[in-house]
Amino acid sequence: LAQPLQVFIELDDDAPPGARSLEDPVAELESAIRHAQVRRMGVNEPSVEPDPGGHRVIMPDGHGSRRGARMASPMPHHDDMAEGKVRRTPEDEVALLDQHADVLFRMDANQRLIGLNEPGDDPAPRLFLARGRTTHRIWFRADVSAAIVEACRAIAVDLPRWDGQSPTPSLYDPLRTVVAQEAPVVSESNGPAYRFVERAEVRTKAEAKVVDETSAHLLERHFPYTQSVLTSRMPIVGVVVDGWVVSACYCARKRSGACEAGVDTEKLYQNRGLGTLVVSAWRNEIEKEGGQPLYSTSWDNLASRAVARKLRLIPYAETFSLA
């Protein structure tokens, strides 16, 4: 593109006052297009007044039912597209969802789940669903009957594409009902999955260091399990206080090309930005090795979601599992 375009996205009336940026601008624009909420407008229109920094525009009172508008980032050049900084196609999204499941689970030749991709023999969930912005993918444990699989696939096809928000509790009731026909559902998990794109500044006086075989003893007090499975969780990045790692990010599950982050901070040291620091540093280590860092959490884990927000991670899917 010789001249990048500017994209203006109008805010709904319930958007927070003073909001300055969108969590996923391209996804917001796609949603607006789907709902016919896009109109052509010139940057010199009287109703569009850029702020001094050029990042926000204000719509005067009385202009339709809208209160304001934010300006998304300029449309990227072709070299940005090559680096994967823009919205993925449905085919790319399928690959990303598949990669996420491959990192989390061990599967047989038929893509049935046979276990968690981590040390130990904990069973995989009976159902694992990933809802993306444009498509979905669903997997089943090897012992789930063909009839249950067929019924759940039919339900999944009718689910709405993910809109970036936490779903209503009843959305997955049909899946719960079908899976429970074989055995009671004993647990479930549900939450967003993120990808790393831009880098955010982490403001803290603490320092993160890589923990390897020569410094594994630093994990002994607060992270004994991680120390016991050191190789499977490397690279490990931690913050050391008084001779012990008190906050750490590690590979909770990993493959040769991608790793899922696990992060923990001792209670006494929480709310100091340490989790954000170690995840950021862990990301750097993964990318140095040529891997792709992944991050996911549950909707009720507010601290983990806060880390994702501070690091400006991009939510690309919502996952749901039944055990």
- Which structural category fits the helices and strands? alpha+beta
Q: What's the gyration radius in Å?
A: 22 Å
Q: Give the overall silhouette.
A: globular
What is the helical fraction, as a range of percent? 25-40%
State the major sheet: 9 strands, mixed
The poorly predicted ranges are: 1-24, 41-86
Tell me the number of strands: 15
Order of helices and strands: EHEEEHHEEEEHHEEHHEEEHEHE
Mean pLDDT across the residues is 81
If strands are numbered along the chain, what order do they take across the biggest sheet?
A: 8-7-15-9-14-13-12-11-10
Count of DSSP H/I helices: 9
Percent of residues in beta strands? 15-25%
Query: Separation of termini?
Result: 49 Å
Blueprint of the fold:
Layout: E1 8-10, H1 25-34, E2 49-50, E3 56-58, E4 68-71, H2 78-82, H3 90-104, E5 105-107, E6 113-116, E7 127-132, E8 136-140, H4 146-157, H5 173-179, E9 188-195, E10 209-211, H6 224-228, H7 230-233, E11 236-241, E12 244-254, E13 258-265, H8 274-288, E14 292-296, H9 302-310, E15 314-322
Parallel strand pairs: 13-14
Antiparallel strand pairs: 1-4, 2-3, 3-4, 5-6, 7-8, 7-15, 9-14, 9-15, 10-11, 11-12, 12-13
Helix pairs in contact: 4-5
List keywords for this structure.
25% strand, 323 residues, single chain, 9-stranded mixed beta sheet, 25% helix, disordered N terminus, globular, alpha+beta, 4-stranded antiparallel beta sheet
Describe the 3D structure.
The chain has 323 residues and is an alpha+beta fold. It is 25% helix and 25% strand. It has 9 helices and 15 strands. The protein has helices at residues 25-34, 78-82, 90-104, 146-157, 173-179, 224-228, 230-233, 274-288, 302-310; strands at 8-10, 49-50, 56-58, 68-71, 105-107, 113-116, 127-132, 136-140, 188-195, 209-211, 236-241, 244-254, 258-265, 292-296, 314-322. The strands form 3 sheets. The protein has a 9-stranded mixed sheet with strand order 8-7-15-9-14-13-12-11-10, with helices on both faces. Strands 1-4-3-2 form a 4-stranded antiparallel sheet, covered by helices on one side. It has a two-stranded antiparallel ribbon with strand order 5-6. Strand 7 and strand 8 (136-140) form a beta hairpin. The longest helix is centred in the first third of the chain and has 15 residues, at 90-104. Mean pLDDT is 81; it is low at 1-24 and 41-86.
